């Protein structure tokens, strides 16, 4: 399957496969947030499928309106080689933008690494710091290193004003912590007939460009940090064009996360230096 990847795919795939954080044991934590049904779980599944060269359903994409799958905070790791070996990046998936979504206060706690795996978010009350799932002392691997907003490009699910407001609030939280932010525009295959079956046309599509510009203007994420993708959702085999967009988004997500880890390390060193 991998031999059908074009040269760009190969270099993005190599980057992802070879990526190693500077510090031993460090991992990049990627937090995906967005409305229910946007394609967060499908993106995690798609990443795993591309990296393994066959279809995977690790994060259980859900095509019903019941969002219970994603209410529990879960870290998704992707196996590399053997059963105990994993890629040095992990995903968390949070349903943060709907009326019944995770409170913004809890997203802030997740960004800071205070939310332990298994915590069940409650849309009407925020996490208390005496909760057994509250992580009192987050380690370097617990904090979020890159925040990715996942939104659908199709017109069936337009992004409402209240959603834009919440995305902005979450972005402000992340900005105050210095966490880099990006966006993934999913379901581009549903936007216009020219893209359906020919993803190469994505950057020529006026519809997708307009969507990206609109989203960028609404929430303030620059155009070069917004990645259009089609997730694997009903395909039986991998496809080089689908892989290409997923890999290009993933490579940049890892790069931004890695930059943040390095910046944080050098800032921490400076603080120690000043204290000493
Ligand atoms: N056509 C299309 N469907 C998608 C895409 N991404 C996800 N889906 C479908 O959208 C539905 C919701 O996806 P899911 O990943 O569960 O969304 P989540 O709630 O954000 O985790 C599922 O039926 C997926 O198969 C995409 O890029 N294109
Ligand atoms: Mg999900």
TrEMBL record:
Highest taxon listed in the record's lineage: Eukaryota
The protein, known as: G domain-containing protein
SUPFAM superfamilies: P-loop containing nucleoside triphosphate hydrolases
InterPro entries linked to this entry: P-loop_NTPase
GO biological process, alphabetically ordered: immune response
């Amino acid at each position: 399957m991998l031999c059908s990847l074009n040269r760009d795919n190969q270099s993005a795939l190599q980057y992802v496969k070879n990526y190693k954080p500077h510090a031993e044991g460090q991992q990049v934590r990627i937090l995906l947030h967005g409305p229910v049904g946007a394609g967060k779980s499908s993106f995690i599944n798609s990443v795993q499928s591309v990296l393994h060269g066959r279809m995977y359903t690790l994060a259980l994409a859900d095509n019903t309106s019941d969002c219970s799958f994603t209410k529990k905070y879960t870290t998704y790791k992707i196996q590399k080689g053997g059963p105990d070996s994993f890629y040095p990046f992990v995903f968390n998936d949070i349903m943060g933008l709907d009326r019944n979504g995770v409170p913004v206060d809890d997203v802030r706690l997740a960004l800071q690494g205070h939310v332990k795996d298994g915590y069940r978010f409650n849309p009407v009350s925020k996490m208390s710091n005496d909760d057994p799932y509250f992580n009192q002392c987050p380690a370097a691997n617990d904090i979020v290193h890159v925040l990715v907003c996942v939104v659908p490009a199709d017109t069936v699910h337009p992004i409402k004003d209240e959603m834009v407001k919440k995305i902005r609030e979450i972005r402000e939280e992340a900005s105050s912590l210095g966490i880099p932010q990006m966006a993934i525009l999913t379901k581009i295959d549903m936007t216009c007939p020219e893209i359906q079956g020919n993803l190469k046309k994505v950057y020529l599509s006026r519809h997708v460009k307009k969507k990206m510009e609109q989203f960028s203007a609404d929430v303030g994420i620059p155009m070069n940090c917004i990645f259009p993708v089609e997730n694997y959702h009903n395909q039986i085999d991998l496809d080089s064009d689908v892989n290409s967009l997923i890999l290009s988004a993933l490579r940049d997500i890892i790069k931004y996360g890695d930059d943040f880890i390095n910046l944080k390390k050098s800032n921490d060193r400076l603080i120690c230096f000043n204290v000493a």
